[in-house]
Each structure stands twice: as C-alpha cells, then as structure tokens.
Amino acid sequence: MQIELFILLLMWAPGLSSIFTRLLLREGLADISLRIKGPQIRKTLPFILLFPVAIGIVAYGIAWAAGLVQFVTPDSFIKASPIVTFAALLVMQMVVGTLVGLIGSAGEELGWRGYMLTRLIDARVPYPMLTSGIIWGLWHLPVILAGNYYSGPYPALSVLLFMITITSFSFIIGGLRLATGSVWPAIFLHASWNAVIQDVFDASSGGKNALLWTGESGILVALALLAAAWIVSRRAVDAERMQRKGQLRA
After folding, report:
1. pLDDT at 139 over 70
2. Secondary structure (DSSP) of 26-51
3. Number of Cα atoms under 13 Å in the Cβ half of residue 214
4. Residue 71, SS3?
5. What is the dihedral of CA 22, 27, 29, 30, to 10 degrees?
6. Amino acid 244: pLDDT
7. Rounded distance between C-alpha atoms, residue 139 and residue 134, angstroms
8. What is the pTM of this model?
C-alpha cells in the first residue's frame, strides 16, 4: 500500500508542479482543453485502445514464439485455459484498467504533455518532441537504476533501451496531444499503455530474460515503438507537406 501511494504521488509530481506554475504565472487552463469533446478526440479512442495491444502482439508475440520469453498464465480470478484467460484479461484491462489508470496518468500528462511540451514549443527549443521525450525518460532513471522499475540483467542496457522506448512513445503521445489540442488523449493513451502492457503482457511473460526482451526496457518493445514512432512521424510530415501544397495552390 505504501509503495502504491508513493508511485501515485510520484506520477502526480509533474502535474502538481505544472498546476502550481500556472497559478503562480496566472496562465489559466484554457490551453489544455479539459473538456472531453470534439470529433478529433472521439476519433482517437480506437487508436488509444488498440495501439498498446498492437505493440504487445508484435513485441511480446515475437518473444513468446521465438522462445526468448516464456508465456505464463497470470494470477487471475478467471479460471479458464491460458489463451481464454489472457484474452479476457486483455479486454478487461483495455476498458476497466484504462479507466482506473486515469488517476495516475492524469498527473504525469498534465505536466509532460499538458505543460512542458507546449512550453518547449513556445520557447522554440530545437526538436521539442525529442527533447520532451528525453526529459521524460531521465525522470524515470533513478527508479530504474535503483532496480525498482524495469531493471533488466544489464542496467546500462536497460537504461539505453528504456530511453529509446520512452522517447519513441513521447512522439506518439505528444502527437496526439498537439493534433487534438487537448491533453485528454494523452492521458487516456498513457493509462491504456500501462493497463495493457504492464498488467497483461508483462504479467503474461516470465523467465530470466523477460526484462531483456520485453517490458519498457526490453529490446523488442524498444524496437517496436521506435518503428511506430518513425511511421507516425513520417505520416505527420507527409500530411504537413500536402497541407502546404494545398495552401499554395489556393
């Protein structure tokens, strides 16, 4: 219970810091659009719920199929075959787990994407998405180096892979926040990721090399997210080019 409370307070540190800063500078909350509305936000919901599942199927699926990581049936109140149990837990975490996870993810996202990212852009910091991802990753490093969070058999490698994972994810979650003009999609995607990856895919993985290949400091998860970030970034660049061409023709 004490550890869970500590983690919750840690997750809310960025959010509380941003709120205090807003109050101090009298900036208000209009720029994060706290009201859940608009077609853009609704259109992101399928992506929010299915993106972690897709990453999990690719990264963890390869690890299980190749025998790099052992597939195990997680402890659950569901009494069925391993596959049925996994599927039931996956659906439950996609919905219930995501909703519960909003409590913690709101704290981080109010700070990282709700405040820091936009301020980096306003300050014209070079590569704001990359910079925000690096800062977000560095913020996690003390608990990784202490062995309390996704610390694999090789600490230095765990740090490197985690930084790739978190920076890549930052491009995706930051892109949602900027595209919709609201912090809610970022909050929901963060909660969905934690619920699906940590509470389903991680819980279904075992063996001495589990943290080497899977998890947020795992090789396969880092590569899968890096590829996803590249695809999303390329699409965003292509869309911007098409928009500019349309404006020039008009």
Report:
1. yes
2. T--SGGG--S--SHHHHHHHHHHHHH
3. 30
4. strand
5. -160
6. 42
7. 9
8. 0.91
